[in-house]
Amino acid sequence: MNLLHVFKLIHKDLRMGPRSPIFIWALLYPFVITLVVRGIFGGLLAPEPRLGIVDEGRSLVALRLQELDWITHTRCRDLPQLKQRVADNDLDAGLFLKKGFDQAVVFGEKPLLEFWISGQSSASHKIILAMTTLDLIREVEGKPPPVQVVLHTTGENNKLPITARLIPFMVLFSLLIAGVLVTAFGLVQEREDKTLEALLVTPIRFSEILAAKAGIGLILALLMSLLTLFLNNAIGSHLLMLCLVLFLAAFMAVEIGLIFGLIATHIKGLFTLVKPVNIFILAPVIFFIFPHWPQWIAKIFPTYWIIHPVFEMAVSQGRLPKISVDLTVTVVIIILLILPIRMLSVKRRG
User: Fold this and answer.
1) Are 216 and 13 in contact (CB under 8 A)?
2) Read out DSSP for 90-136?
């Protein structure tokens, strides 16, 4: 295989990519799905109260609020930004602490507490944030709070918000569009436009064309899935390991795309083939959205083994030992998929 030929074909496809609606959709998808998910679920079904803080003097109240894992806190630049975000319902409440607030409380000066509440916030969130803030102020004052607030979450997976449980769906769909469809669409379009035959009369080999299509899909799938995680604050703390997991996931997606591209003879046939198979590809994500369902069923689907490691690394902050079995199964599936690709490519070339 001549790598120079492969790189030239990749460069040609990248230059022609903006003319393809599938290519454009693959680039736009991370932004669109993030806006949709955050817009629908981010505010309506957020399980944790959202508190914005402007602290001008490193108040102990602000530091203690940040230590509470059942409150989502956000640092705002200044008071106007805080008030605007509360008014837009980006935050359930906003707390403004002037410089010297703690000292004033300690000396009994009763400083003004500026606490802004969103009109669209739920009543429970308003009560939790207000009571918690007042209790922490009493703590600064040196008096014990009248009650101690302790939140208990039942069930291991119930503590994850719906937006976190939807991350496997968003990433897998990104892999489907960028890895599967872009790869398959590029190959079928070359055949439909009769440019494939023109390439084959040159010194370029059929295997080099497949490698170029796979390279485009691999690059796009890796970047778009990583971008999807970034836009949803799900990169995690192990970036290199996450990139390895996404690379393997993108590689498997590209192999599926090559199989689709080698089977389909025209664009219409490709979409006819993809529609029913997409159900099989996307099926495992349902078990992340509904964690109380029997999880062993999800393991029947090959795509589970590429999306579960992504979920563990990006959402659950897992480490390599926890996903070693998943990665091993993924590598085995990748190796097994080489056989049908090779058989179909021989058939097509012949």
Assistant:
1) yes
2) SSSEEEEE-TTHHHHHHTT-----EEEE-TTS-HHHHHHHHHHHHHH
Q: Which domain holds residue 290?
A: 3-40+160-349
Looking at the fold, whether 89 and 18 belong to one and the same domain comes out as: no
| pLDDT tens digits in sequence order for the chain, 350 residues long | 677 877 888 877 777 766 778 888 888 999 998 888 776 765 444 457 888 898 888 888 888 888 887 788 888 888 889 888 888 888 888 888 888 888 888 887 778 878 888 877 777 777 888 888 888 887 777 765 544 444 444 344 445 667 777 888 889 889 999 989 999 888 888 888 777 777 777 788 888 888 888 899 999 999 999 999 888 878 877 888 889 999 999 999 999 999 998 888 888 888 888 878 778 888 888 888 887 788 888 889 888 998 888 888 877 666 777 788 999 999 999 999 999 998 988 877 65
Q: Check: CB of residue 175 under 8 Å from CB of residue 99.
A: no
| Whole-number Å distance between alpha carbons of 186 and 182 | 6
Determine phi and psi for 126, rounding to 5 degrees.
Answer: -60, -45
Query: Does 176 lie in the same domain as 247?
Result: yes
Which residues are 51's β-sheet partners?
A: 73, 93
148 found inside a domain: no
Other beta carbons less than 10 A from residue 240's beta carbon: 7
